[in-house]
Amino acid sequence: MLNSETLTAITKYLDMGTCSEWDEEKKLEFLTRELKGKRLLVPPSMEGTLRSTEQGEMVQSKFGQSITDCTQTAGGVLLATLHPPHPPQEQKCSLMEEISKISCQNYWSVVYKNPEFLT
């Protein structure tokens, strides 16, 4: 379900009260009305795009979960918008780059230079 902290921030911003005090029916009514409405759930200033895909066999099994899926997606987008991740630290990036080089070298060594490795 939509993160309650995010939903509370939205409803307080809209002067609608605290959603954590609402019953489940009122929450679903609010979410359904918002998803059908013309109000933007994501600020126009947000850069980038969102693409969500599902494998064919999953569509049938998840159809009954459509409201939950929409609220999870909206909640994730809102959280990422309200609390964007910090940029990676340069020290961590260089460390990850070194780990990647060592990993690749070891992989190639095992797969392509080891005569006992089955291909």
From TrEMBL:
Signal peptide: none annotated. GO terms for biological process: carbon fixation; tricarboxylic acid cycle. GO terms for cellular component: cytosol. Its EC number is 4.1.1.31. Pfam families: PEPcase. Keywords: Lyase, Pyruvate. GO terms for molecular function: phosphoenolpyruvate carboxylase activity. InterPro entries: PEP_COase (IPR021135), Pyrv/PenolPyrv_kinase-like_dom (IPR015813). This is Putative phosphoenolpyruvate carboxylase. It comes from Rosa chinensis.
